[in-house]
Amino acid sequence: MNDRLKEQVSALVDNEVESASSNSLDQVLKSPELRQTWQRYHQLGDWMRGAADGKVVNVDVADRVRMALESEPAILIPVQSSVDSAEATSSSDVGANVVSGPRPWGQIAGIGIAAAVASLTVLLFQQNNFLGLDDQLPFLASSETTLHSVETDNSNVAAIVQTAESSQDSQADQLNSTTQPTQLSASFQEKLDAYLVSHVKQSATNGMQGMLPYARVVNHGTGASVKNSRIGRQGR
Amino acid sequence: MSDKADIDTELVRRVQRGDKGAFDLLVRKYQQRVAKLISRFISDAAEVEDVTQEAFIKAYRALPNFRGDSAFYTWLYRIATNAAKNHLVTIRRRPPRSDVDVTSGATEQGYELEGDESPEGEMMSEEIRRTIQKTLEEMPEELRLALTMCEFDGLTYEEISEVMECPIGTVRSRIFRARHLLDSKLRPLISEHEVEDVV
What fold characterizes domain A1-57? Predict the structure, then answer.
């Protein structure tokens, strides 16, 4: 073995190399003979000190430990950023000799925000795009629709009568004569029936008001009396 | 000194990256000191070896949690002390009531636990002691001074170079030559002992 290499090992034993990742350490790690030299030079120092204090111990468990660790998984720790390393170095508490794992709060907050947005999207979809009645709903809401009589026979709404609101002015008679309860078109009524039935079921399961803001206000006849419609609640 | 590498830190870093060979170097470096510490608790030489091995295995398993705020050997000595105490509890002996000093192995109360080393072990230790003493006496003074200042006084190469008034490279060379000389005298002794063990 080259004496120059052994001299490098000797300096390495004394921590007298400029850089820990220097070639000398790599060479020791690769060469079994240099490993032995590394071991003996450390042993010499221990024995010299042991001889001085009267206690020389001679053990060699390196091979036994190596064999015992062969079945152990290799340790793999993610490389920490320089900021984390600085924080770790400055920490002085007793339990600080522990590698801190990745902080989960950012991930949790992100997942929470994503879940909230998804929930909001679903709710809006359910409320506004149900059965494709987007066009009719504004009409129902804006026109003063009277839910004259809603009869629920298990799942059907009997009739929806729209009456134009008659004001209390002098044109009431004329308006009443021209605004007789009008039957909605059959296709629309069928669609609306199905919608209301589904709405009742939906509102029973998710506790939403759904169409109630549109359907509850009832203007009955020409008078000012207002009564709430009877809405089937068999689904509740 | 500030730009000097910390070999232990580098080796630990390499182990934490999956290099088991780096841990082997740590074992080879510290096994004598760990065994000496454990021998303060446990007298039987075979048990000392077993517990030393166990301490290193425990250290390896705990290394993922080692962040390096304390020196590696301080951390290792704590593990070794606990391993020795646990061993004593396991075999229903009473562990010492006070802690053992990390660096010297002496207890806080100032006494060392008695060890009943085997006659062979005692003889071997005595031979090693005598050989070291004799070799140090016989080697050139500049080699002996450089080595003893390094090993006993813990001086750096730079500090030794100032004391000896010579370049750092010369210090480095002298220390190596002194070690080489000692090693050449002690190696036959160890080989002889290992042969006796086998027989």
Answer: Arc Repressor Mutant, subunit A (1.10.10)
